[in-house]
Amino acid sequence: MNLPRFPISFPEGRVALAVRPAPGADLARTLRGMGLTTGVPIIVLVSAGATQSQLKRLGPLLDKVVIPVTVAAGAAVVDEGHRSGVGAMLGQACRRTTAQFPLVGLAPEHRGESGDGLDPNHTHFVAVPADPPGWAAMWTSRVASALAGGNRSVALVIAGGDPAWASLAEHAMAGRLVMAVARTGGVADHLARALKGEEADRRAGPLAASGQVFAVDPARGASHVADRLRSALRRDEPGRPGALDPGRDRT
Known about the structure:
Helix content is about 35%, strand content about 20%. The chain is an alpha/beta fold and about 250 residues long. The chain has a nine-stranded mixed β-sheet, with helices on both faces. The longest helix has 15 residues, at about 60-75. The N and C termini lie far apart (about 50 Å). Mean pLDDT is about 90; it is low at about 235-250.
């Protein structure tokens, strides 16, 4: 099937719209071609490799922080589109609460039309080649940048295992602000520790020193985490008065 835009039908009866970007095509224009609005604030979920024990604790964070902030900001959410993980949990929460906003995932090109392995509660998918290594991290960052179109975008790190480090490297190269939710485990906790100068995974050090990363402590309450995410999405351009200092809220 060579059509750039096509539906993905799931056994659950849900249908998502998908697009297959042509090589060298304007990605933002391609995304607009399936009805998405570009130039909006973007939240990128970074949680690849999170364990089931970590995921079980994240429901309140999605319900009380991610969904209300996304809706209020008129934002879209981008993730890797898997049937499992934080993105799938967010899709389920949106269905349960009837919250409506674009939830955009990736679909490996060879199985995109079947929906195999994809979350049925995502609204849109971008079908891309499943190579080279690190393809998911690379394309997630590209899609987020194309949707943001110069607007604000934040990589929200929640738990995460080894695969999340590749995503963070892509977001750092894109100049994206990174918000790590401490106490969720994995990569997010390593970033929070590195920001405080404590022992952490060696990959966290350069990110913590970049000035693009800040951490929030959910022990201070969901409203605090939501306020910090809203502030990140409203931040001015670097160097302008009132710009967010990513380091000022280190846990």
